[in-house]
Each structure stands twice: as structure tokens, then as C-alpha cells.
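// run 5 | inverse folding | seed 20
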């Protein structure tokens, strides 16, 4: 089989490389000439563990190539995937489908026989019908079907998620189109991967509903963390106990500074707008969006409080800028809210991130970037962990104690045990753990 993939961003590049691994001939297409040239030279424009090796392997095997010529890519293609961006429209919060419809019009020009047009991008309900209309208006004679095939890839583990997914969701009205999709995903039948066939509308809603539910779990446990801090509980104990309930599950019950990234913020906001458009307000998700925005801001105030009520002229060391480990993605990352607020309060920021510095430098200004965590900590009045990179999980506390101006560790990911940190002489602040809060109150009392 042969497919074309329009868009060489995160979803398009990962999907194209993985389909090639399945034995499919894949041509990835992009209008960005510079990006295509880099890909042809073996340079990967995004960071995803294992992706560079997979792309190199499939390029060498001749199953994966890159071009700016969509017409060339679509020759003899069984399917063409639309994997372009759907950013949030700033004016109203809806997903911007400009790139999707531009791709659909370009695809229409090159349809020469039957082809399945697959929406891989995250799009609002009704987009498959709208794309079909766009293609038909451009080419009334075109022989095609439009299918919704949402992605469920986690940054940092995307290849495994594609190769060993929990499920594959295919929204297709046509039996002919469904058969093409079955053949494309046939290698997954060996793993007995569930294949959920449904209408395009159901598939489009499924994508948003899944992300909204996961974002809700994160927000829920963050709310419980607030209660634990106020009432004397430990959110990690609570999360473990409720996660043992099979109806709830343990995943996404990790308290922290709020969710970020390329999916959850954009998709939850878009989902609220979809609900309003259909006069079915998604009130739970609306609350999740608002709470998460407040959560990220409140983390800056938490740091200020931990520093005795003011960070003016203090050196604050930041460990981790990416919204999660194993990615260079800083989109909607909590750090992009926390750091500017600290700077507004007068703090001087020193920072480190193993991968995301290049992307972070485009978003953050006046940062003293360092090459390792200990350089960040040297002379710092406080050290703040925002992203739980493995490099930060076993820091030498004695070494930190020797080089920091003030032994103050603020752990927004709860990766350390309070007793161990406090035994090393640190004022330790984490999320939703009452013992730590008591220690903090004692420290603040001494400061006053």
C-alpha cells in the first residue's frame, strides 16, 4: 500500500515513519521547503525519542521519503492523511481549520482515482463532512471518501503509542473506505488491538472527549492536593488509594503545576466551544479550563510564599521548562506562566532543561541559562523543579546544600521524599503534602 501524509509536524512525521515501519510506502509532504530539505538530509525538526533512528531506517529502506510536491506524493496513493496544525483561534477559542481546508483543496487538485482522505489532525465534530464538501466543490468529479482517524500519541512515547495503541478509532461511513483503513492497520491485528469503527462525528468527538477526560483527572487531583494541604492529608497517599479502584485507575492522578503541551490546553478549550456551538455546554470541561489556568498562576505565588513572601532580588533556580519530560515542547507549559510572574515580582531566573532550551529561548527572556542543574543551584535562594526530568530525580542534596545561598527546594512534581530532603537541611515545599506544609510554616515563622 501507499499513502501520502500532508504535514510533517509531530503527528504527521511520527505517523508517516510508523506506517513505513508497518511496510507501507509513505511520502510525507510539506510546503516548508527548508523543513523538507532538512528531512531529506536526515535532520529531524522535533525531539521524540527513537524517531531519528526510525526515520533513518525507513528512509534507507526506501519506504519513507519527503517532498513538497503533493501531486507526486499522491500518485497511486490509497490514502492521503491530513496532519496539519489546528491551533486555537485567539478571538473565540475555536480550533482554526484554515490549514485543514487548504490541504483539502490542494488534495482535490491531484485526485486521479479513488482515494481515502484521512483527517489525522484534531478537528471539531463535523469537520469530515466539511472537508468532503471542500473537496467536492473544488472537484465535483473526484472519487473519494473522508475518514476521521484521530491520533492518541503522547509526546515522549509516541512511537510506542502508535505501534502498540490501546485502540484505533476509525470514523467512516463507507465500507470501501473502512476496508482501506483495515488494510493500513492490519499489522496491529496481530497484537489484537481493538479497532473501533464508528461515524466520523463519533470519532471526532472521541478524540476531544478522551483528552478532556484526562485533563479532568489531572485537574481533579490538583484540587484534592489543595484540600490535602489545608486539611492535613497527603495527596500521594490519596491518589494511590483511589487509583487502586479499577473504575478510576492510577494514570493521570499525579498532582503538579497544571497540564500543558500541544493537546490538552488547545483541545479542552476547543471542546468547550464545540459544546456551546451545539447548545450543550460542557460545564465540567469549562471548569477544568478555568481551574488549570488559575493553577499555573498559583504556582508562582506558592514559590513566593515559600521564599518568605517576596522574591525581589532573589536568585530563583528553575529545573525543567518543557511541559513534560522527554520532549522539547514548551507550548502552554506551566513554566511559561510561572517564570514571567516571578520576574514581575523581581526575581532573577537561572534555568536548565536537558532538551527544551532552544524552544524555551523563543518564549522566555532575561534567563541565565546553565548547562547543568548544579550551575543553576549555585548561589540560588531557591531551587524549583517544574518538569520531572530523570536528571532531577536523584540530585546530590549535600552538594546542593553546599552551593546554594539558601537551602530551599520547591518541588512542584513531588519527586522527592520530604523526610530525606529536610534531613539534608532544606526547607522543602511540595504539592499537597501536609507534613511539608507544616515545615514551611515553621520556616516562615522564623523568617518573620
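// decoded
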Amino acid at each position: 500500500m501507499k499513502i501520502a501524509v500532508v504535514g510533517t509536524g509531530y503527528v504527521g512525521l511520527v505517523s508517516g515513519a510508523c506506517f513505513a515501519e508497518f511496510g507501507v510506502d509513505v511520502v510525507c509532504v510539506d510546503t516548508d521547503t527548508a523543513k523538507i530539505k532538512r528531512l531529506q538530509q536526515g535532520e529531524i525538526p522535533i525531539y521524540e525519542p527513537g524517531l531519528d533512528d526510525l526515520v533513518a531506517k525507513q528512509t534507507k529502506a526506501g519506504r519513507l521519503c519527503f517532498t513538497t510536491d503533493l501531486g507526486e506524493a499522491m500518485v497511486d496513493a490509497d490514502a492521503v492523511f491530513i496532519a496539519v496544525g489546528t491551533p486555537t483561534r485567539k478571538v473565540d477559542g475555536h480550533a482554526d481549520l484554515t490549514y485543514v481546508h487548504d490541504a483539502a483543496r490542494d488534495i482535490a487538485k491531484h485526485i486521479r482515482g479513488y482515494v481515502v482522505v484521512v483527517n489525522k489532525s484534531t478537528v471539531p465534530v463535523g469537520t469530515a463532512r466539511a472537508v468532503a464538501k471542500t473537496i467536492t466543490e473544488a472537484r465535483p468529479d473526484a472519487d473519494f471518501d473522508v475518514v476521521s482517524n484521530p491520533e492518541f500519541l503522547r509526546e515522549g512515547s509516541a512511537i510506542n503509542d502508535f505501534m502498540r495503541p490501546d485502540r484505533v478509532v476509525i470514523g467512516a461511513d463507507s465500507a470501501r473506505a473502512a476496508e482501506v483503513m483495515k488494510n493500513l492497520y492490519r499489522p496491529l491485528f496481530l497484537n489484537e488491538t481493538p479497532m473501533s469503527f464508528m461515524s466520523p462525528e463519533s470519532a471526532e468527538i472521541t478524540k476531544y472527549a478522551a483528552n478532556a477526560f484526562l485533563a479532568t483527572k489531572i485537574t481533579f487531583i490538583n484540587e484534592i492536593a489543595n484540600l490535602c494541604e489545608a486539611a492535613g492529608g497527603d495527596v500521594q497517599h490519596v491518589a494511590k488509594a483511589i487509583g487502586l479502584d479499577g473504575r478510576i485507575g492510577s494514570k493521570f492522578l499525579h498532582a503538579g503545576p497544571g497540564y500543558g503541551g500541544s493537546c490538552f490546553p488547545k483541545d479542552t478549550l476547543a471542546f468547550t466551544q464545540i459544546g456551546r456551538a451545539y447548545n450543550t455546554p460542557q460545564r465540567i470541561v469549562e471548569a477544568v479550563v478555568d481551574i488549570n489556568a488559575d493553577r499555573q498562576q498559583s504556582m508562582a505565588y506558592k514559590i513566593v510564599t515559600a521564599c518568605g513572601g517576596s522574591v525581589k532580588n532573589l536568585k530563583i533556580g528553575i529545573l525543567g521548562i518543557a511541559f513534560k519530560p522527554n520532549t522539547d515542547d514548551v507550548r502552554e507549559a506551566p513554566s511559561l506562566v510561572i517564570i514571567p510572574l516571578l520576574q514581575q515580582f523581581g526575581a532573577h531566573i537561572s534555568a536548565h532543561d536537558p532538551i527544551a532550551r532552544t524552544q524555551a529561548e523563543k518564549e522566555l527572556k532575561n534567563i541565565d541559562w546553565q548547562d547543568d542543574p548544579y550551575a543553576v543551584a549555585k548561589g540560588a535562594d531557591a531551587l524549583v523543579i517544574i518538569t520531572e526530568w530523570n536528571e532531577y530525580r536523584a540530585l546530590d542534596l549535600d552538594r546542593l546544600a553546599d552551593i546554594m545561598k539558601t537551602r530551599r527546594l520547591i518541588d512542584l512534581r513531588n519527586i522527592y521524599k520530604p523526610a530525606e530532603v529536610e534531613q539534608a537541611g532544606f526547607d522543602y515545599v511540595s504539592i499537597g503534602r501536609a507534613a511539608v506544609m507544616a515545615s514551611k510554616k515553621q520556616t516562615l515563622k522564623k523568617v518573620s
